[in-house]
């Protein structure tokens, strides 16, 4: 019966997305929802897109293994990113009336800078979207009691998300995500209430976790630990800022104030609500320690779903898995659309000079299909955990896209040559260290980030041998 409920939920989600798709009449509607979204929808899309599979299944499993010290990148770094976007990036980028974040690099620098950064941004989504597809496979496998293999579940889940994202774009993402956010919040709060009672109360769970040092967050005062802490924080905290999904949400807002506050409030809500799955996971160690011990050896990502299936009645299972599917699908749809828009606008469009708007719209849809196939294949073949896939996704944007974005917005002397040096230096250093010393004292992405800053400064202040020097963009 539970599986049939899931099927019904998926059908309703597709229907909602297809209804929203009737509002798509142009590429701008498809990518930015015509810039018509009110603050409560922007807030919902920011919160629900980031509150994904890695939050419920990934970081909860990491918390059981490593405690709070393993969660520096997410939720701490992820929440920091969204708040920083609202404070420093949403307003100036909104005023520029761009279609994608990649357009900024073309307007501020040149086409080659746009092309390289856009490819890096698109590639970064491979891990994040694959994490959602992997989670969908796990859910279908668990609910069918093994009748549906994880790989088959991934294909089914990806297909469902593809259908409504393909036709409705950002309008479908916004409408379905808003509904899904309500289900997420209401459903998980109800489950927490039930689980807390079974574990002897919330205070008991918290005291037990504290007694086992699960809340230790700050690193030891040793160079290795401090550097690793900073690297983990900035990988998502800064590396997520030059991302199309973040930009797409603020850029779809009705006003620049809505764009800024939607991101700030969404990021704050995400940070607070991310502790709910942690509570559920640790409560499982008190309710069913034998089950937890067994899954820690096999797949700790299944601790929370197994807890619900083994210890809660059917109606509570329906509530939880409805919320879980909402979590995964809201993130999957948004992160599927974002790289597809970037590839279409900033990589492929330049190859077709005479393309009209309708042709561009259908190009976006074709890329959505292709990207879905690629990420599903990657999800099926990779052995990485959900949390690790998401955590690794932002290394490339940290070293290649962040410094040119910040410098282009806030440093008048930033030049195209500086951006080129930052990209080449950051990417080259990061890749070289990933190959030569991936587990070194200095994490490769951290060194690449520092080199990208040095490259921007040196390249901008040196004699200009490459590119046209452009004045700092000042949005109207």
- Mean pLDDT across residues: 89
- Rg from Cα: 22 Å
Low-confidence stretches: none
Which secondary-structure class do the elements indicate? Answer: mainly alpha
Helix content: over 70%
How many discrete domains?
2
CATH class division of the largest domain = Mainly Alpha
Give the number of DSSP strands.
0
Query: What's the CATH architecture name of the largest domain?
Result: Up-down Bundle
List the helices and strands and how they pair.
Layout lengths: L1 H19 L6 H6 L6 H12 L2 H14 L5 H24 L5 H8 L2 H33 L6 H49 L3 H10 L11 H15 L6 H8 L4 H18 L1 H13 L1 H10 L4 H9 L2 H35 L8 H25 L4 H8 L1 H6 L1 H9 L5 H21 L7 H18 L15
Helix pairs in contact: 1-8, 1-16, 3-8, 3-12, 3-16, 4-13, 4-18, 5-10, 5-11, 5-12, 6-7, 7-8, 7-16, 7-17, 7-18, 8-13, 8-16, 8-17, 9-13, 11-12, 13-14, 16-17, 21-22
Keywords:
476 residues, Sodium/glucose cotransporter, single chain, globular, mainly alpha
Structure description:
The protein has 476 residues and is mainly alpha-helical. The chain has 2 domains: 396 residues, Up-down Bundle (Sodium/glucose cotransporter), CATH 1.20.1730; 60 residues, no CATH class. It has 22 helices and no strands. Helix 6 runs antiparallel to helix 7. It is globular, with a radius of gyration of 22 Å.
Short recap of the structure:
The chain is mostly helical and 476 residues long. It has 22 helices and no strands.
């Amino acid at each position: 019966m539970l599986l049939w409920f899931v099927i019904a939920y998926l059908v309703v989600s597709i229907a909602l997305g297809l209804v929203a798709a009737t509002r798509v009449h142009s590429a701008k509607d498809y990518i930015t929802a015509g810039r018509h979204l009110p603050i409560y929808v922007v807030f919902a899309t920011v919160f629900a897109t980031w509150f994904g599979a890695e939050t419920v299944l990934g970081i909860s499993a990491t918390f059981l293994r490593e405690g709070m010290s393993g969660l520096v990148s997410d939720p701490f770094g992820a929440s920091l990113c969204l708040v920083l976007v609202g404070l420093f990036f949403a307003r100036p980028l909104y005023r520029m009336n761009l279609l994608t974040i990649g357009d900024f690099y073309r307007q501020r620098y040149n086409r080659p800078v746009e092309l390289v950064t856009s490819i890096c941004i698109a590639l970064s989504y491979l891990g994040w979207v694959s994490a959602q597809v992997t989670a969908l496979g796990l859910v279908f496998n668990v609910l069918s009691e093994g009748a549906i293999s994880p790989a088959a579940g991934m294909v089914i889940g990806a297909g469902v998300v593809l259908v409504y994202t393909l036709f409705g774009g950002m309008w479908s993402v916004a409408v379905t995500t808003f509904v899904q956010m309500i289900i997420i919040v209401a459903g998980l709060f109800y489950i927490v209430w039930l689980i807390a009672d079974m574990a002897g109360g919330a205070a008991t769970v918290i005291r037990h976790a504290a007694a086992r040092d699960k809340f230790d967050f700050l690193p030891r005062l040793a160079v290795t630990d401090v550097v690793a802490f900073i690297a983990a924080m900035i990988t998502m905290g800064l590396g997520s800022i030059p991302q199309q999904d973040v930009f797409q949400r603020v850029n779809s807002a009705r006003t620049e104030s809505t764009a800024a506050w939607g991101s700030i409030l969404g990021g704050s809500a995400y940070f607070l609500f991310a502790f709910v799955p942690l509570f559920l996971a640790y409560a499982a160690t008190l309710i069913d320690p034998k089950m937890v011990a067994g899954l820690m050896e096999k797949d700790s990502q299944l601790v929370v779903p197994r807890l619900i299936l083994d210890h809660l009645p059917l109606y509570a299972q329906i509530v939880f898995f409805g919320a879980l599917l909402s979590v995964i699908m809201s993130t999957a749809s948004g992160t599927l659309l974002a790289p597809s828009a970037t590839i279409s606008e900033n990589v492929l469009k330049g190859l077709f000079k005479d393309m009209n708007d309708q042709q561009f719209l259908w190009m976006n849809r074709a890329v959505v299909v292709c990207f879905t196939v690629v990420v599903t294949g990657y999800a099926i073949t990779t052995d990485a955990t959900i949390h690790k896939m998401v955590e690794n996704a932002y290394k490339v944007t940290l070293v290649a896209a962040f410094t040119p974005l910040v410098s282009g917005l806030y440093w008048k002397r930033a030049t195209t040559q500086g951006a080129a040096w930052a990209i080449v230096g950051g990417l080259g250093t990061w890749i070289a260290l990933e190959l030569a010393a991936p587990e070194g004292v200095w994490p490769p992405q951290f060194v690449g980030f520092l080199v990208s800053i040095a490259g921007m400064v040196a390249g901008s202040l040196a004699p200009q041998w490459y590119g046209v020097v452009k004045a700092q963009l000042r949005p109207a």
